[in-house]
Specification:
The protein is of the alpha+beta class. The protein is built from 16 helices and 35 strands. The longest helix is centred in the middle third of the chain and has 18 residues.
Length: about 575
Amino acid sequence: MGAGLQRVLIANRGEIAVRITRACRELGIEAVAAYEPAERGALHVDVADSAVEVAGYLDAGALVAAATAAGADAVHPGYGFLAESPEFAEAVAKAGLVFVGPPPAALRSAGDKIEARRLAEAAGIPVTPGYAGVDLSDETLEQEALRLGFPLMVKAAAGGGGRGMRTVLAAPALPDAIAAARREAAAAFGDGRVYLERLVGGARHVEVQVLADAHGAVVHLGERDCSLQRRHQKIVEEAPSPAADPGLRATLGRAAVALARAAGYVGAGTVEFLLGPDGAWHFLELNARLQVEHAVTEAVTGIDLVRAQLAVAAGEPLELEQEDVDWNGHAIECRVYAEDPANGFLPAAGRLLELDLPRWPGVRIDTGVRAGDEVGVRYDPMLAKVIAHAEDRDACIDRMAAALAETAILGVATNLGFLRWALQRPAFRAGEAGTDFVEREWSPDQVPELPEDVRRAAVARQHDDGSPWYELGPPQLEVRAAGGFVLHEGWQFAVGGDDEPPSASALGPGGSLAAPMPGTVLRVDVHEGEHVDDGQTLVLLEAMKMELAVTAPGAGVVTGVLVAAGDLVSRGQALVELDGDV
């Protein structure tokens, strides 16, 4: 399998680059890592057979030149960045190299979300009500939104991963949502086109994995449920979906295969559907790449999707037919992010002082970081994926919960505590969590308080040079602590001082408004002496391709502007000073 390829440049970073390297190594293929200058010492560079520096992961010319210089015969784009760019696929082919993914024509018709909607409609597959016409100007989108009605979604035509998406509840918020979605999409994918879709409340996100070769064979590998999301980005995925019976699985599978055939698809791809509370389903999009959550499908089918991608790219026919596909047990994936659920799931940054991930039978870890790494705001905030597999869903949830309880990360805020909380919620346990689960169930007051005995033990641990496990007892009290932080039920707490930075709406000393997250200043919308209204945008920040508007907590006057566009800021850093009447 994949024997026709000798050396592959991996045009990506992080855990997916490590994952692809592992598959290459199993097949005897040399893996060449690409890295930006700041990531010279990254894990994905160290595990590869060789590495080459590039100007950027979105620089198609630099990546193709690097592949050629390295003597590679193929390029694997991973996911994100240029994975769904037909221009990149064409540039790779023009250089005489193999693109590990769909052909450019399929990327144009399927990878582009707007074209995929049109393709689905032509194939008789129901699509979510919306507008994705030829004219995508702001004015036309605003007119079409009034026709569709609210609430609705503004969505990027290119890429995925929740970037370039905004929920709009009422017409006054639409212009800013369109502008923000365009900026975010352009920054992440180099394409600022957006379209509209009706927002279906209480729906489930169910997607079908397809695999196609260049000889006309197409199969589906069943569905995944990706309903548990925040900011339109997936947090927990599972296979099979608790909402799909065999009949629905077969129906969605047939639709996915039909769409892949219509698109002339080759390789691994995912057809996403929205399953409404009434049981009606609609096509959402075709992700023309490997998905982050591919591991749960691998777990229940036993099919290595990255190896399959490499085999298909080498021209080999699929080694299985639809009747050969079987599903065994249940799998769940939890994405561990550097973010703060208690602060709106905003990205977090810092140095990974401790990173202890479970390596158990039935538990798989995919990661691209290690202890000592600096987590910045330039890239996606995902630190690791924890994948559990067991004989049924209940056993799988229990195994995942146990694995997360043994996971320890210190030095940067993560969603580890949130994941442990979510797995135990009755709605999730019952298989009833929809895409609105986080909005309905989560609030920052769910974060537990740090017990005083744990705090005392952690403070004592700071003066101990031994193991990060500190024993205080009897009975024995185990505390994970490092660098002034302590872990309790998955939540990181700072100990021994004034440790809490101001919140998104908190005024600091002298009436200064502080940054709620580390990031880059995209825009400053006010000047000294300007009168501002309650809720008015003062500064626009960006971190990990996500925008956040810092707004005035009340009416007042700007007495000082402390940052400028392009500045890097830390969480809690003063941005704007307002008068004392705010």
